[in-house]
Structure formats: structure tokens, C-alpha cells
């Protein structure tokens, strides 16, 4: 067989082997790579690690081992370990391996395994500022110290692991912190192939941005008395300074009711107290706190008010008159003064929408009702677009009477006409049983809420009341007059009896009250 025929047959054989996936062909044309595990390891003091080396694919490979004492130094063969697939090492260094076939062919070298030893030194981690809590948007710095490591070039590893682990400086500063900065912080020193022990753990928890609480004393002004503001905050000794403001009504502010003006000498005070002298009218105040080199500010506190009962010509709140309806009374609050826009305000802020925080052109009127719900109780005052506060009024609304009401015409009825009396149940239950009394004598007891007279007579004149669910209405008097001309009555003066009993307490500094009987 000539040489050209041999080459042709060899080519066909190799091609067929390649398409059939014959590993021997791959072996002939590709150089495998040795695989070394683990690639990184820190030896504990007095400890060791097992390194294992393997070669991809089939074949008989003799494992060769190499080591270097440090980065940049020459690799030396470890002849004593030749042929071993696993070795135990207890010295720091850079280790690698490769395979050698029986024919003298070599694999690619493995990646280097970086084996570091542990120094008998524990790093020390500190944090500045050393505050109990760190709040959103603040900043903090962690610092890693190596005892006895002065004059040595160190790099530093940091935890949590999401951070870049290799740093050449021993400080890390975190600005404008958020939730992602929560974690347990640690560090260690890294010098070539030697590591210190991990430092102490410093837990960092990021808290919501803080809002201080402002208190005022007294709440009601008295002549000549000073007002003390107190700004309360968590851990007040941890580097806080305080800012003090007067709250000013502002028509242009949509989301908040006020804008804030810094009080005299109200900037960066170290004390949590601020004293105001000479205040004579209703006023509102807020505070906030600041700390840290990046000037972190808390939220503003909620406004707190100092109320005055004294009338003020530029802004005044008037109460009344009290008017009556069948089952309740109501009182109107009116704002007046030197302004075109007004709003009625209330503390606490649990009032109905039409009665608070709404600017009105001209007079602002608020209507309060004496019902079973007392959410309208509180201190009321007026605010103007011209930045004025009115006098304040403390109002308590109570409804002591929730029983039925006897409904009778106020004027005398004409003899011989149809008349209908009714019992207003106010709080109605299913299948009511209503009793009607005439001069304390039961005259009707069924589910009807009306007492009808087809042709009322003089004998029907008298006192009426109704009873429902164990509660009895106040008595009312029905007077019957002659159809022609006035007719004398056994009562020379017509009695108007009670529609409702309401109690309205209106107080400023000194409490006084009105007790209304609707006669």
C-alpha cells in the first residue's frame, strides 16, 4: 500500500471516529485541563487542608504538584507528592497541579489554590458615630484596627459579604443609608498570604426617619406667664441639636396646614427646651432635630398649640346662637376679623371634614350637633390667610337624653279638626311597642307611633307622653281652642314642654356652661 493510500485511510478513520464521538480522537487533538480543589482556603492556626487534583476525560495521568511561597515567587515542583491525587498541606502558599501521560504529554496547569494561614491576631472593628440607632439618610463609618500591625501594609476584608471584600484602607463610610445597609459588620486584616481573625461583630439596623414629639406648657395662656416648649426624641444625648419654629397658617400649602418660621435663637440649640415670653395670643409651634456631619434632619414634629381665650380684633371666634331641632340642638362657630379667607380648626383632629382645615372666603362657619357621637368635642379656633390665630374655645357636646320624644303642635289646635300626635323613637328597634298616655292614663299601646284624633274635642286637652323600650318621653301639653274665637283654658299660659335636653359645655380658661331646656 503506497503512502497516499495510507494517508487517505487514516483520514477516513479519524473522520469516522470524530463523528461517532470517540473519546480517543478528542484525546489525540485536545489538551485537557487539571482541576484543583479547593481554590481558596484559610488555614486555622495549627490546621491543614486537603487538596485534590483530577484531569478531565479518560486516560492514565500521573499528577504533578507545584507550589510557590508567595505571590510573584517562582513555582517549585513538589516531587515528594508526584502521582498522588490528593495531598495534605499545612503551610500557606500558592499550589497548582497538572497531569502527565505515559507518553510524556502534559495537561494544562490547574488554577492556583491560594492557601492563607491565620495570624494569632484578632482585628478590632469600631463604628462612628457610636449611636444606639441609625436612621434613614444618615451616615456612619466603620474602622478596622490591627493590634500590633502598625507599619505593616494591610488590605482589608469586610462583611456583610455583599460588599466588595478587598479594600486597601481600613475605613468604610456609608452615606445616605437605607435598608440595604442593614447587617452584621466585621473586618479582618489581609497581608499577602496571612489573615487575621475576623473582628468583633457590630450589628447595624437602619430605622425609619424620626419624628420628634413637641409638648407645650401651659396649653392655655395666662397673663404674664411664659410658655415652655419641649422637644422629645429618642436618645436625646446622642449628638442631637434642636430647631424651633412658629407654625404659620398658609393658604398656598395644600398637603400641610402650615409653613414654619424659625424662632429667634431657635437654631442648633443643645437643649431640648425653649422658653417663650410675652406670648399673648393663640399660637402654634413645631420642632425638629439634627445631628451628624452630613446634617441629617428629622421630620418636623406635629404642631402644638398654646391657646388664648382673649378676644383679638384681627381674628375672633364667636359661639352661638344655639338653635333647636326635634331631636338635637346645634351651635354655630363663626370666624371674623381682618382677613378675606378663614378656616375653623380643632384639636384633637377627629372632626368632620366640613368643620376643619377648609379655607372659606368671607366668614367661616362651623356647625356642631349634640348627638350620640361626641367626636366634635375639642378646642376650636380660627385661622386667617393673614397668618392670624383667633381666641380659642373649648367645647364639649353631650346628649344625656336618648329616649323617645312626644311630638305635639306648638300652637293650640282647633276643636273638631283632625290632629295627629306622634312619638319620635330616635333609636328604633324592630317591632316596636309604643304606649301613649293622656294625663298619665294609658290610652293606646301597640306598634303605631301616632296617636290620631279624627275630631279633637275639649276633653282631649291635657298632658301627653309616650313610652318605648322602657324609656319615657318628657310630657307635652296639647291645648284645644274653640273653632270660633278664643276659648279660655284651664291653663291661662300655654306650656311649652321639653323637646330635647342637651348639655353644651363651653370653656376657655375658666369653665362655664349652658343648660338648654327647649320650652
From TrEMBL:
User: Where does the record locate the signal sequence feature?
Assistant: 1-23
Q: Which residues cross the membrane?
A: none
Record PROSITE patterns: IG_LIKE
A molecular-function term among this protein's GO annotations: transmembrane signaling receptor activity
Gene Ontology CC terms: external side of plasma membrane
Q: Which InterPro entries does the UniProt entry name for this protein?
A: Ig-like_dom (IPR007110), Ig-like_dom_sf (IPR036179), Ig-like_fold (IPR013783), Ig_Fc_receptor (IPR050488), Ig_sub (IPR003599), Ig_sub2 (IPR003598)
GO terms in the biological process aspect are: cell surface receptor signaling pathway; immune response
Q: Which Gene3D superfamilies match?
A: Immunoglobulins
Question: Domain Ig-like: where?
Answer: 32-115, 120-207, 212-290, 404-479
Q: Which UniProt keywords apply?
A: Disulfide bond, Signal
Name-wise, this protein is Ig-like domain-containing protein
Organism for this UniProt entry:
Astatotilapia calliptera (Eastern happy)
* Taxonomic lineage of the native organism: Eukaryota, Metazoa, Chordata, Craniata, Vertebrata
Underlying gene: IL13RA2
Amino acid at each position: 500500500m503506497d503512502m497516499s493510500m495510507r494517508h487517505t485511510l487514516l483520514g477516513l478513520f479519524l473522520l469516522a471516529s470524530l463523528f461517532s464521538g470517540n473519546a480517543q480522537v478528542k484525546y489525540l487533538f485536545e489538551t485537557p485541563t487539571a482541576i484543583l480543589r479547593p481554590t481558596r482556603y484559610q488555614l486555622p492556626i495549627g490546621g491543614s487542608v486537603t487538596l485534590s487534583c483530577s484531569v478531565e476525560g479518560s486516560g492514565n495521568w500521573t499528577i504533578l504538584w507545584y507550589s510557590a511561597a508567595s505571590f510573584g515567587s517562582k513555582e517549585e515542583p513538589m516531587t515528594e507528592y508526584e502521582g498522588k491525587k490528593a495531598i495534605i498541606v499545612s503551610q500557606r502558599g500558592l499550589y497548582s497541579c497538572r497531569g502527565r501521560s505515559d507518553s510524556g504529554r502534559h495537561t494544562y496547569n490547574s488554577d492556583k489554590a491560594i492557601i492563607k494561614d491565620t495570624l494569632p491576631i484578632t482585628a478590632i472593628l469600631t463604628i462612628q458615630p457610636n449611636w444606639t440607632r441609625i436612621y434613614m439618610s444618615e451616615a456612619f463609618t466603620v474602622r478596622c484596627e490591627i493590634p500590633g500591625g502598625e507599619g505593616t501594609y494591610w488590605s482589608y476584608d469586610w462583611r456583610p459579604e455583599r460588599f466588595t471584600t478587598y479594600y486597601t484602607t481600613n475605613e468604610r463610610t456609608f452615606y445616605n443609608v437605607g435598608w440595604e445597609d442593614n447587617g452584621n459588620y466585621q473586618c479582618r486584616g489581609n497581608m499577602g498570604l496571612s489573615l487575621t481573625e475576623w473582628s468583633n461583630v457590630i450589628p447595624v439596623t437602619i430605622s425609619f426617619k424620626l419624628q420628634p414629639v413637641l409638648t407645650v406648657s401651659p396649653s392655655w395662656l395666662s397673663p404674664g406667664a411664659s410658655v415652655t416648649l419641649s422637644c422629645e426624641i429618642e436618645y436625646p444625648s446622642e449628638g442631637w441639636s434642636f430647631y424651633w419654629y412658629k407654625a404659620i397658617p398658609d393658604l398656598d400649602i395644600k398637603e400641610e396646614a402650615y409653613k414654619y418660621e424659625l424662632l429667634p435663637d431657635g437654631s442648633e440649640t443643645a437643649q431640648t427646651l425653649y422658653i417663650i415670653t410675652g406670648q399673648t395670643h393663640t399660637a402654634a409651634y413645631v420642632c425638629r432635630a439634627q445631628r451628624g456631619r452630613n446634617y441629617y434632619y428629622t421630620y418636623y414634629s406635629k404642631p402644638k398649640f398654646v391657646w388664648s381665650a382673649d378676644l383679638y380684633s384681627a381674628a375672633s371666634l364667636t359661639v352661638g346662637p344655639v338653635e333647636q331641632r326635634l331631636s338635637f340642638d346645634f351651635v354655630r362657630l363663626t370666624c371674623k376679623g381682618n382677613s378675606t379667607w378663614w378656616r375653623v380648626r380643632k384639636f384633637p383632629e377627629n372632626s368632620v371634614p366640613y368643620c376643619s382645615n377648609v379655607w372659606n372666603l368671607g366668614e367661616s362657619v362651623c356647625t356642631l350637633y349634640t348627638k350620640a357621637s361626641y367626636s366634635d368635642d375639642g378646642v376650636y379656633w380660627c385661622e386667617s390667610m393673614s397668618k392670624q390665630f383667633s381666641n380659642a374655645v373649648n367645647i364639649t357636646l353631650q346628649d344625656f337624653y336618648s329616649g323617645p320624644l312626644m311630638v305635639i303642635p306648638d300652637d293650640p289646635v282647633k276643636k273638631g279638626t283632625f290632629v295627629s300626635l306622634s312619638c319620635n323613637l330616635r333609636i328604633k328597634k324592630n317591632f316596636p311597642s309604643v304606649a301613649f298616655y293622656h294625663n298619665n292614663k294609658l290610652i293606646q299601646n301597640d306598634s303605631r307611633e301616632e296617636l290620631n284624633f279624627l275630631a279633637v274635642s275639649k276633653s282631649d286637652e291635657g298632658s301627653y307622653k309616650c313610652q318605648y323600650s322602657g324609656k319615657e318621653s318628657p310630657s307635652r301639653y296639647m291645648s284645644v281652642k274653640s273653632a270660633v274665637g278664643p276659648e279660655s283654658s284651664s291653663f291661662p299660659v300655654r306650656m311649652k314642654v321639653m323637646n330635647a335636653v342637651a348639655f353644651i359645655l363651653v370653656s376657655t380658661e375658666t369653665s362655664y356652661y349652658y343648660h338648654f331646656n327647649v320650652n
